[in-house]
Amino acid sequence: MKLPLSGRSLTAGAVAVATLMTGGSVAGAASASEHAASASGPAAVAAAPDIPIANVKAHLTQLQSIAVANGGNRAHGRPGYQASLDYVKAKLDAAGFTTTVQRFTASGRTGYNLIADWPGGNVDQVVMAGSHLDSVSSGAGINDNGSGSAAVLETALAVARSGHQPAKHLRFAWWGAEELGLVGSRHYVNSLGSAGRAKISGYLNFDMIGSPNPGYFVYDDDPTIEKTFKDYFAGLGVSTEIETEGDGRSDHAPFKNAGVPVGGLFSGADYRKTSAQAAKWGGTAGQPFDRCYHSSCDTTANINDTALNRNSDAIAYAMWELSR
After folding, report:
1. CA-CA distance, 37 to 47, in Å (whole number)?
2. DSSP 145
3. Chain segment 72-95, per-residue pLDDT in tens
4. How confident is the model over 303-322, as a mean pLDDT?
5. Quick one: DSSP state of residue 287?
6. To pair with 232 at 20 to 30 A between CA atoms, which of 20, 61, 105, 316?
7. Longest dimension (CA), the chain
8. Catalytic: which of 34, 178, 243, 321?
9. Is-catalytic flag, 178?
10. Which of 116, 75, 109 shows the shortest CA–CA distance to 94?
């Protein structure tokens, strides 16, 4: 997640040329009873697959290794970002997705978005999930935003494993240069034109979903998308709150500003958990949701497995439910 405008020292100018080319756990994994609860919830929950937390964490381990091998980060215009994109693209290509790499420039460096389309479905009704793949330059960015990137990737791979063929068209995206001001996602939205934007029936954004002192926050933008996520968490007996900390600070903003229905999930950044939130969700009151936000300690040790697991499963639930 990008810093608020007042906290950014970098500005992102983007003139884009599109090119087509073809941990430690703090809380432990969600319990078996929780999975059983989700399976006994609304019918669409049972239809969506469980997203294996081990697979999501394996992607995070790979992103951590990429950062370590490339100067400690996966930032825009750096080798670690390119290696991260190559890793995700290879997984999607092998699973049968049609992938597109979209190029842009920001702050004098070349950046890339990765778009993956699952064959089939009505291309005039697109359900899209996305996350930013870049980190800040100070660290590996495993919660921000390896967590969202890994969960979206594993959901896409679950689509392929299941052979899911919904009525609507499924699209997944990994954005570049979010940390410089939503540059990649803004370029993508602008590149679609009004006709392309009108075909997206919903964009779902996932930026920081494994925070070590987590909250369960749901975007309150599009009512249908919001209700879909709230229904999922209600089936688990998990209370949610409206997401306010990151409002306008992540990649849903360009879509929302262009009139596309948006929604998403968030587990908290540098805001501090209140006593009421700690009573509801556990964790430590008075401490940030993510004490390693935009820091070198945002590694695989900076992930809460329960939050990552619940949010990953919620992504799959929403993609299945909204693409009927």
Report:
1. 14
2. I
3. 999 999 999 999 999 999 999 999
4. 98
5. S
6. 61
7. 52
8. 178
9. yes
10. 116
